[in-house]
Specification:
279 residues, alpha/beta, nine-stranded mixed beta sheet, four-stranded parallel beta sheet
């Protein structure tokens, strides 16, 4: 079955699920596999629990026309989400980084939703399964989608970027998380900057923290950037307080937040900068 045909079936469904236990009425079920389970074995249960169709990748489980046989269920989920994203006129902001992804995502959404219809990653659905599921929740009414991308190996962010095709990118920071997967701090930088590599190739826009020298180096001489920083950038700011609450002065405007600590200043400023960019 072509992705276009699968997308037509998807449009007849109320949503997508990979868990037969919590399937919603008329949802599209994808039978995924793991080291200790085979989702194909639960396709029949998913149909019994209310799924409209079940995508399977083993012929013996394609019992009737409600079961959609594909070569690989996971790849079909990823391809479907990419096809769906590209059919819509939505603007996609991709976010990754070692720390602060979820906080930044929540803050950015809080700012943008005051003027736009937004869709964003719920919880930590930021991997090779979660990103497709997030994309498939985007509707034709969505104007901006904020997609969080996580990774612990080189190549994962490149793969997720290909799936969600972001127009804008922001990397929170380059820390030492998942060193065992990336091999070294240099590996972390190489892995996370795959988002910026994708944005550059697409000629999209990068949101840059001018106080992060690693980030500046990754962006290089790429010109399509919108920057924030304490001393220079499209937005300059002064930190007035970080405890018990954060207070930041941006030009003549005071930003107050119930968040506290230095680590949240840049998360707040990223949201402020992105909000400023989108007016």
């Amino acid at each position: 079955m072509s992705i276009e045909d699968l997308h037509n079936l998807f449009k007849k469904c109320s949503g997508v699920s990979t868990d037969s236990r919590f399937i919603g009425q008329d949802e599209l079920f994808f039978s995924l596999k793991g080291p200790n389970f085979n989702g194909n074995k639960y396709a029949k249960k998913a149909i019994e629990n209310g799924a409209k169709y079940a995508v399977v990748d083993e012929k013996e489980f394609a019992i009737d026309e409600r079961y959609i046989l594909v070569k690989n269920s996971l790849e079909s989920l990823q391809e479907l989400s990419n096809y769906h994203r590209n059919k819509l006129k939505v603007k996609v902001i991709g976010i990754t980084g070692s720390n602060g992804k979820t906080t930044s995502k929540e803050l950015i959404n809080s700012v943008l939703k005051t003027q736009f219809k937004t869709s964003y990653t719920k919880g930590n659905l930021n991997n090779h399964i979660g990103v497709p599921l997030t994309l498939l929740k985007i509707t034709s009414e969505t104007e901006i989608a904020i997609i969080e991308m996580g990774a612990n190996h080189i190549g994962e962010i490149a793969m997720l970027s290909k799936i969600c095709n972001p127009d804008f990118g922001y990397i929170t920071n380059f820390g030492k998380a998942h060193l065992e997967g990336f091999g070294s701090e240099e590996g972390v930088i190489k892995g996370k900057k795959e988002l910026y590599d994708y944005i550059k190739k697409k000629k999209g826009l990068i949101f840059q923290n001018n106080d992060d020298h690693k980030q500046i180096k990754c962006v290089g001489d790429y010109q399509n950037v919108f920057c924030f920083g304490k001393s220079n950038g499209d937005i300059k700011y002064l930190v007035k307080s970080v405890n018990p609450e954060i207070e930041i002065k941006v030009n003549k405007t005071l930003i107050n937040s119930s968040l506290f600590g230095n680590h949240n200043v840049e998360n707040i400023m990223a949201a402020a900068a992105i909000g400023k960019y989108f007016k």
